[in-house]
Amino acid sequence: ALLLDPLDAETRALMDEIRNRQGQPALPGTSLIALRPDQWVMVATALWILAFTYLGIRHFRALPKWPALAVITLAALLALAAAWRQQNAYSDDQYMVLVDDLPREPTAGTPDWNYSPFRAGQIVKVNENTGTHAKIASAESSFWLPLEHLKQVW
To answer: CA dist 53 to 15, 61, 65, 150, Å?
Structure first.
């Protein structure tokens, strides 16, 4: 769940409680670095709006220009950081299984119940993607899983 949404308060509280019971330190706080790239873009957009609102108000009142320029610069840096994290944070081949009892498919669309099915939350590495199915190759075998039951995680 933390891979899907690292800032979800309920998940973080549950994980903190589990880690405390095990005697491990709590999860790190919700710092800016924990934001997903799309959330970085939203923060940058909010800063841009604040800066340009400030510049708009400045036309009617005598206010200094430097605060708006500082906020615009900060927003630009956040947008660049979001672009960098989008390129580097997501793993192109890492997906999480979203449903319980997901069977392996030797060929796309034909489930094989002879192997133990995947449970929700398991991470798989995708080697090939057809648009409807993802091919997972391991040392022992290769098989397919429906993409509708997988979600890319970072």
So the answer is: 40, 12, 12, 42
